[in-house]
Amino acid sequence: MTPPKLLPPHYFALAVIVMVALGVVDTTSLLPGSWYLIGIIPIGLGAGLALWGSKLFAKAGTNIIPFTESTALVTSGAFSFSRNPMYLGMNLALIGLALLLNAAVPWLVVVGFALLLRIKFVRVEEQLMEATFGEEYLSYKARVRRWV
User: CB within 8 A of 80, min separation 6: which ones?
Assistant: First the structure.
């Protein structure tokens, strides 16, 4: 299967741009005082999780680009508690950004991004993994949740 022209990091970058633009326009304030700074935590956790997942792919020598052939089923490290730690990391970073922006409308982008990943990437990738790794993937899928 041919990889899509726009990959999850592209959608992530677009989501960040849209969220910041919406945050500038939306002047509502959801959190009192400086509580919005708590957004730094999920941004850091998300970036770390996405980086950890990509390093595990590199260590296993398997392809990170969606819809391309996987040569290894990575189940250790971050993949031992999430089947999609890189996507989870991107979502966490967007949650952190939404908190930092301290506005309501950017949260719509967070939800839209999560749905986009689920519909456009995760669903297809799960089918490909099952076709490639069969029972080994089904066993992994049975014991490890999609997100957390």
Answer: 144
101-126 tens-digit pLDDT: 999 999 999 999 999 999 999 999 99
Q: pTM to 2 decimals?
A: 0.93
Q: How many residues are given for the chain?
A: 148
Output the six-digit token pair for 141.
Answer: 């899928």
For residues 63 and 27, the answer to whether their CB atoms sit within 8 Å is no
- Interatomic CA distance for residues 118 and 66, integer angstroms: 13
Closest CA to 143 of 86, 75, 89, 88: 75
* Residues 86-100: b if buried by 16+ CB within 10 A, e if exposed: bbbbbbbbbbbbbbb
